[in-house]
Amino acid sequence: MEHEHTGPLRMRVETEKWPLVAPFRITGQTLDAAEVLVVVLENDDFDGRGEASGVDYRNETTASMRKQLEAVRAKVERGLTARSLQQLLPLGGARNALDCALWDFEASASGQPAWRLAGLHKPPQPLVTTFTCGADTPEKMAAAARAYRGARAIKIKLTGEASDGDRVRAVREAQPSAWLGVDANQGFTPHSLTHLMPIMVESKVELIEQPYPVGHEALLDGFDSPIAIAADESAQSLRDIPDLVGRFGVVNIKLDKSGGLTESLAMARAARQYGLEAMIGNMISTSLAMAPAFLVGQLCTVVDLDGPILLKSDRSIRAQYEDGYITCPEALWGYSHKIGRK
Q1: pLDDT tens-digit profile of 124-137?
Q2: In whole angstroms, what is the distance from residue 174 CA to residue 169 CA?
Q3: At 307, phi and psi to the nearest 5?
Q4: 39 phi/psi in degrees, rounded to 5
Q5: How many CA atoms lie within 13 A of 12 on its CB side?
Q6: Which of 187, 204, 257, 328 has the fewest CB atoms within 10 Å distance of its CB?
Q7: Which of 6-15, 28-37, 145-154 bottoms out in mean pLDDT, i.e. has the lowest?
Q8: Rounded CA gap, 80 and 262, in Å?
Q9: What are the tens digits of pLDDT across the range 222-274?
Q10: What are phi and psi of 302, to 5 degrees?
Q11: Is the pLDDT of residue 1 over 60?
Q12: Which class for 134: exposed (0-12), middle (13-18), buried (19 or more C-beta within 10 A)?
């Protein structure tokens, strides 16, 4: 979709901090709160919102994203299109928040829902989503998995440590029938992956996400994995997808990483063209960030949109999680609306 030129706009940029229910550990860091940036585009009649958390391995923060947005404020407020936005800012959270705000604004101003503007053929349907167990002791991860009552899919954060095998077994025992995936966050070595593979096969793991660090993708050359491997950090944008063929079978798309809904939709469609499966992922963030990702999820075979579950509180209008599925209500984002939603 190519947005109409929006005309003069006002841009508001807000920083919010959302505490987590419990500390969340992945390879290299532990989080106790999600700090997000919210962009609001408005004129006298309509508004649009977008949220971003930024990408930690690019050293993005709410402060750095705000600085990027302030540097282009004059151009934004004169009005812009989706295409011009892709050239205005680089990949990352700042462009994501602005891009999603632009889509939301256009949905409101045009009276056409974002799913229709995105070229989807029917309204978004509920999607099975993974629920994440942060890296911890096997016992605590098993308890976390059991707490996800009704979950149909579980994702386990691993670190490349010797205890990873016990973690996988413990979560599988806690959730014997759920789809199971693991996320290494670039934390494996060929030795640790080889050692862990029989345990993952035995535990019926169906996806291994980003086993090796960016720049070391050649380690997968000739590796005949019995489990599908997904590229996350190795798949930043549309132009990366051709290079994934032969090494990865799945592309994990994240709006913060790719710079917004516009690029993410293009990535999901390109993945199919190259014979790859598409996956939609998320940063830890509120339901406002889930709603545009939920649209991309309609084109994906794996959906990982559980970020708000980890928060102590969420937006007043929020994504719904029931029986292992995520649904985003129309009032949340991407539909005709009145100014002033919370």
Answers
A1: 999 999 999 999 99
A2: 9
A3: -50, -50
A4: -110, 130
A5: 11
A6: 204
A7: 28-37
A8: 14
A9: 999 999 999 999 999 999 999 999 999 999 999 999 999 999 999 999 999 99
A10: -125, 130
A11: no
A12: buried
**Greatest C-alpha distance within the chain:** 61
Q: Which pTM value belongs to this model?
A: 0.94
65-92: pLDDT as tens digits: 999 999 999 999 999 888 899 999 999 9
Whether the CB-CB separation of 216 and 243 falls below 8 Å is answered with no
Sign of the torsion formed by the C-alpha atoms of 174, 177, 183 and 189:
positive
Closest CA to 230 of 251, 213, 245: 251
Contact 292, 114 (CB under 8 A): yes
What ranges in 111-232 are assigned the alpha helix state H?
Answer: 114-117, 138-147, 164-174, 190-202
Residue 181, token pair as written in the block: 């995936």
DSSP state of 245: B
CA-to-CA separations, 213 to 149, 209, 240, in angstroms, rounded: 33, 11, 15
- Say how far apart CA 27 and CA 93 lie, in whole Å: 21
Please give the structure tokens belonging to residue 342.
């919370």
User: Using CA atoms, how far apart are residues 46 and 9, in angstroms rounded to an integer?
Assistant: 10
Instruction: Round to whole Å and give the CA distance between 54 and 231.
Output: 18
